[in-house]
Amino acid sequence: MDEVLSRLTTQPGVKAAAVYNAYGIKVGGKGEMPDNASLISTIVQEASRMEQEGAAAPVVCIETAHRSFIAKAKDGHTLVMVKGNAGGR
User: Fold this and answer.
1) Count of the separate structural domains present in the chain
2) Under the cellular component aspect of Gene Ontology, which terms does the record hold (predicted)?
3) Quick one: which of 16, 6, 20 has its CA closest to 75?
């Protein structure tokens, strides 16, 4: 997991990446993840339940004035990446 997170955080614009379990508890991460990022894992898991059986899990993007959160759930875990927005911090 650490190797994947390290590779993600070296991509252009990626400020942080973390993995959350089904309870929203961070089980690994690189970079500075906002404290409330675990809420995104809940949103992604709920969005996954809306998909038909066998369909690929959705990718959820939440944008704020300063950053974007990109997340996807798979096998009971959620990967969340944080990217800085153009003009943001």
Assistant:
1) 1
2) Ragulator complex
3) 20
pLDDT tens profile 16-53: 999 999 888 999 999 988 888 888 888 888 888 887 77
| Domain presence at residue 89 | no
What does the buried/exposed string (b/e) look like for 45-74 if buried means 16 or more CB atoms within 10 Å of the residue's CB?
bebbeeeeeeeebeebeeeeeebbbbbbbe
| Per-residue model confidence as pLDDT tens digits over 66-76 | 899 999 988 88
Supply the CATH number for residue 27's domain: 3.30.450.30
- State the pTM of this model: 0.83
Classified as helix, coil or strand, 74 is: strand
Coil, strand or helix at 32: coil
